[in-house]
Recover the amino acids of this structure.
């Protein structure tokens, strides 16, 4: 504990007597300062015990003393020591009244007690308090290190919570709560997810304080610290206390930050080694060597190959990462996926989300970065596949309303998922994921599953510039003919094809005689130079009509 006015009064060698402010003696004293200036306030920092003999003061003038004491109290001076037997035989009543009125403790210093003795007592008490804090800090560091080595991050958090008399929580790279101590702090830690995400958008090391007196969470004060030495934080630590930590508690917090940073960086090195093993396993699977892949996978990825898995292939927009690094962090667009992506590495954000979800559920996941592409093997129906879908949904939800745009814009990743497969069919699964990826890009989607391609319609695949250009060229002559008002060949062709060449049914749909429809189809053959008896020609014409139906024809600009 730092020295207080009460501890100085009880100091047997100082013989101090309280003349005013008896109820405020528990205030800490930062320093003891001697000043005979009529106005020492400009030289005060707050927390001082001011020692005077009233050499330049009219200590018997009530009004002068009220002004003097009021300024001292306003400057944060915690007490006033008045030496008797020097300029005044006793403490003037005007000074006593002014101190009592302002509530400022006033101590009488006897003639035989030099100011130097009071200054030494304060200095010695401060030094002793600092020594105790440093000793306690080193003891806390030893205990935290022991817990980190024997019980891991969970044990470290428990020791830290005990040291600061509060709670502690660890967040992973995605901003999710990994561990808390005590257990009841889990709900409190979960409420800080948004604050942790904002902290992660800042370059490491970074810290912030939330809650505390006057805040929305006035029940505690929480410090957030990023963990990691790279540009992007790898994790975050939250420490909740009833008040601002003291020196010993601050030592414990900084020790915990250092230890957790070492743990995360060590994990980072191990993660890089695991990725190299994963890349070798993936190459063997794609080369059709599942037995060799199992041998290399060992215990690390062996469980992943024992059950159906999904192949996930993701790509970033060309140059997206380079633009993000050049432009700096982009503003978050809402959702956890956005916050992570805003740091300028969309594929890194996706990888972090999948790995964090897999780690929380205890499942193995193989993540292999390949330049602008990310390849992932994840258990079918597992947490990583669900996290991938959630990640894509969060990105698409953040797009402007009605904003159909090309996937990959603003650095968004584009993701394709294969159907469930096993090690023998890994190459097929990779091809399925690439096909789904291609469709996702054409459809302007963030994520498409290969199973959705077979379950859906082929028509969305026509939403391609090359297909539309082909349809425009094939049907343009018919649209130009209809624009002259000489017949409705396009509508007649559509009706005839939709009725599979049945003249009566198609003519009834158009409200014309079947001979009229036959004439129109002959005109179509003459204008296009193609025979409608050819099944390939009918198929091309039907697809061209479907590809241009939403545009009301490719030659709209030629119509009157």
């Amino acid at each position: 504990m730092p020295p207080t006015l009460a501890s100085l009064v009880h100091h047997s060698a100082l013989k101090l007597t309280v003349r005013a402010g008896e109820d405020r003696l528990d205030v800490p004293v930062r320093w003891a300062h001697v000043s005979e200036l009529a106005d020492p306030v400009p030289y005060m920092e707050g927390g001082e015990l001011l020692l005077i003999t009233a050499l330049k003061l009219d200590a018997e003038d009530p009004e002068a003393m009220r002004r003097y004491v009021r300024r001292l109290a306003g400057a944060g001076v915690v007490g006033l020591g008045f030496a008797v037997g020097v300029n005044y035989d006793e403490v003037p009543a005007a000074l006593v009244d002014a101190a009592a009125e302002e509530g400022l403790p006033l101590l009488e210093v006897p003639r035989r007690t030099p100011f130097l003795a009071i200054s030494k007592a304060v200095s010695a008490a401060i030094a002793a308090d600092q020594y105790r804090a440093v000793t306690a800090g080193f003891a806390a560091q030893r205990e935290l290190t022991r817990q980190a080595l024997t019980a891991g991050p969970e044990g470290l958090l428990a020791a830290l919570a005990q040291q600061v008399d509060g709670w502690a929580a660890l967040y992973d790279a995605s901003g999710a709560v990994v561990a808390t101590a005590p257990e009841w702090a889990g709900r409190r830690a979960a409420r800080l997810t948004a604050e942790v995400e904002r902290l992660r958008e800042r370059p490491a090391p970074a810290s912030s304080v939330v809650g505390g007196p006057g805040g929305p969470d006035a029940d505690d004060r929480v410090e957030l610290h990023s963990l990691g030495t790279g540009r992007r934080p790898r994790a975050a630590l939250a420490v909740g206390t009833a008040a601002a930590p003291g020196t010993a508690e601050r030592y414990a917090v900084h020790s915990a930050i250092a230890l957790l940073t070492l743990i995360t960086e060590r994990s980072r090195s191990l993660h890089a080694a695991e990725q190299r093993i994963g890349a070798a396993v993936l190459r063997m699977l794609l080369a059709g060597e599942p037995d060799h892949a199992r041998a290399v996978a060992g215990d690390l990825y062996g469980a992943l190959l024992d059950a159906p898995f999904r192949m996930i292939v993701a790509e970033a927009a060309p140059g997206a990462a380079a633009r993000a690094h050049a432009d700096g962090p982009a503003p978050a667009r809402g959702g956890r996926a956005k916050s992570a992506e805003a740091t300028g590495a969309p594929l890194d954000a996706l990888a972090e989300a999948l790995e964090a979800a897999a780690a929380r559920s205890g499942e193995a996941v193989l993540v292999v970065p390949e330049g602008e592409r990310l390849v992932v093997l994840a258990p079918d129906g597992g947490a990583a596949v669900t996290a991938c879908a959630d990640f894509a949904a969060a990105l698409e939800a953040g797009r402007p309303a009605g904003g159909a745009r090309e996937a990959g814009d603003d650095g968004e990743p584009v993701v394709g998922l294969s159907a469930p497969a096993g090690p023998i069919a890994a190459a097929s699964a990779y091809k399925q994921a690439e096909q789904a990826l291609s469709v996702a890009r054409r459809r302007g989607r963030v994520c498409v599953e290969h199973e959705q391609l077979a379950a859906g319609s082929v028509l969305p695949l026509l939403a391609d510039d090359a297909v539309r250009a082909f349809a425009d060229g094939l049907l343009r002559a018919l649209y130009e003919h209809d624009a002259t008002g000489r017949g409705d060949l396009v509508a007649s062709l559509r009706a005839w094809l939709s009725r599979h060449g049945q003249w009566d049914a198609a003519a009834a749909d158009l409200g014309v005689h079947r001979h009229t429809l036959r004439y129109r189809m002959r005109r179509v053959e003459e204008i296009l130079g193609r025979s409608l008896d050819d099944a390939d020609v009918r198929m091309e014409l039907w697809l061209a009509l479907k590809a241009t139906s939403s545009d009301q024809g490719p030659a709209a600009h030629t119509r009157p």
About this structure: The CA atoms of residues 4 and 450 lie 73 Å apart. The first helix runs from residue 5 to 9.
